[in-house]
Amino acid sequence: MSPPHRPAPTMGHNAALAVAGRRRHVLLFPLGYQGHINPMFRLAGILHARGFEVTVFHTHFNAPDPSRHPQYRFVTVPDGISGPAPVAIEDVVSHIFALNAACEAPFRDLLAAILDEYSRDAVACLVADGHLLSMVQVATRLSVPTLVLRTGSAACFSCFLAYPLLIDRGYLPVQESELETEVSELLPYRVRDLMRVGSHDLTRELLARVVAAVDASAGVILNTFDALERSELEKLRRDLTLPVFDIGPLHMFSPVTESSLLRQDRSCLEWLDARPTASVLYVSFGSLACMSSRDLVETAWGIASSGVPFIWVVRPGLVPASVEEKETTATRLPDGFEAATRGRGTVVAWAPQEEVLRHPAVAGFWTHCGWNSTTESVCEGVPMLCRPHFGDQMGNARYVEHVWKVGFEVGGDLERSAVEAAIRRLVTGSDGAEMRARASELKKAAKECTGKAGSSDLAIGKLVDHMLSL
């Protein structure tokens, strides 16, 4: 495979990147969850290749391993929060709020010390995750220009912006009887596709804080690309008064970095090498989504009865332990599953997903439709079975099925017969072949956008110019 495209800085950039003979610094602060860490570290790789020195602020929670990134400096921001990582989405949101509150004062002191050490002129800006409003506010008070990285789609952020309007027009709070109602202001979304993370009040607060962070910033960075979301990006630029930089898909610019919080089992790649082209189903529901023990059983027997070769990521905690259970990492597959699928499939705790999706043996991806997984699948021309769980995943699945037409949703209560039929439809059916062809076209479009003088390549140049002008 050819190396990722990494445009070199121009002569003007080289001059601007140096202050008193030293390189300019960009400060990054990711949110400590896998789906947010990966895009931020990919952005770090892009900016470092463009000539910036990189300093990464991070919490104790899910702290990165500095030895994996020797080219960056790491600064730990005490968060004062102990205990196991949250599992339920409402607890994740509450945890995000708590991290903001706990890190605000120590981040202020650490940022002030960094500014004294580097000199204010040497610091170009802070790039903060969109969920770190308190860090944006701290930087603003210290006169540090801030950009916000949004790790979801442009369509998703339009939903964030529209949330107060959707409340005024009666779409929200969600009523069960209105789930299939189309949201005319945000087509193709239905009410069921709108962002939800627990209660209405919790969702409203979460989204309002992200919008406030963007409003306080000097621009928003999106991990998307023009060919995928052209009209959605145009809408955002009409709705916002600040620059929008669509520089994705980030993983196609920045090499794979060791930012995984779980150890990857690479044996599945060797297993794939022995499989025919476009024959294998890859199944992974991401780092946060969970399922019931019943759904696990129905999924397992649906996979088994489909006859399709598979790689299935069954991570620790995929099925949350009950209150009575002390062991939280064991997720048991049903008795007889291994014998029924021996020689046809492999189960791993975590996989090198980009490499799996890139492998020619992979025919389809059963996914939770997190944005990173969705774009990685699109960019490798792999069609999807969609099983969204929370947050932006429902909206992503809607776009996969009804806009890009590169997959379809497996909704409702899981039944093994429906799972079997869906897998066969995707991997061996004519529908799946058509979806694979459309996904192949999006793969070509992604390569064009990230190629030299492509829309995302040009957007990175504009982003660097913007950072140097702040």
Q: Which strand order do you get reading across the main beta sheet?
A: 5-4-3-6-7-8-9
What is the CATH superfamily of the largest domain? Answer: Glycogen Phosphorylase B
What is the C-alpha radius of gyration, as a whole number of Å? 22 Å
What count of helical segments does DSSP give? Answer: 16
The structural class is alpha/beta
Architecture per CATH nomenclature, i.e. the level-2 architecture of the largest domain: 3-Layer(aba) Sandwich
Strand content: 5-15%
- Strand tally: 15
Mean pLDDT, to the nearest integer, reads 91
Q: Can you give the helix content as a percent range?
A: 40-55%
What's the CATH class of the largest domain, please?
Answer: Alpha Beta
Low-confidence segments, given as residue ranges, are 1-12, 323-329
**Principal-axes shape call:** globular
Stated plainly, the CATH topology of the largest domain is called: Rossmann fold
Number of domains: 2
Largest sheet: 7 strands, parallel
What's the structural blueprint in terms of helices and strands?
Elements (H helix, E strand, L loop, with lengths): L10 H6 L1 E2 L2 E2 L1 E5 L4 H16 L3 E7 L13 E5 L11 H30 L4 E7 L3 H9 L4 E5 L3 H15 L31 H16 L4 E3 L3 H14 L4 E3 L20 H7 L6 E5 L8 H14 L3 E4 L23 H5 L3 E4 L4 H6 L3 E6 L3 H9 L4 E3 L6 H10 L4 E3 L6 H12 L2 H21 L4 H15 L1
Parallel strand pairs: 3-4, 3-6, 4-5, 6-7, 7-8, 8-9, 10-11, 10-13, 11-12, 13-14, 14-15
Antiparallel strand pairs: 1-2
Question: Would you give an account of this structure?
Answer:
With 470 residues, the protein is of the alpha/beta class. It folds into 2 domains: 11-258 and 452-469, 3-Layer(aba) Sandwich (Rossmann fold), CATH 3.40.50; 267-447, Glycogen Phosphorylase B (Rossmann fold, 3-Layer(aba) Sandwich). Helix content is 44%, strand content 14%. It has helices at residues 11-16, 34-49, 89-118, 133-141, 154-168, 200-215, 226-239, 267-273, 293-306, 337-341, 353-358, 371-379, 393-402, 416-427, 430-450, 455-469; strands spanning 18-19, 22-23, 25-29, 53-59, 73-77, 123-129, 146-150, 220-222, 244-246, 280-284, 310-313, 345-348, 362-367, 384-386, 407-409. It has a 7-stranded parallel beta sheet with strand order 5-4-3-6-7-8-9, with helices on both faces. α9 (293-306) links the parallel β10 (280-284) and β11 (310-313). α4 runs parallel beside α6, α9 packs across α14 and α14 (416-427) packs across α15 (430-450). The chain is globular. The model is unreliable at 1-12 and 323-329 (pLDDT under 50).
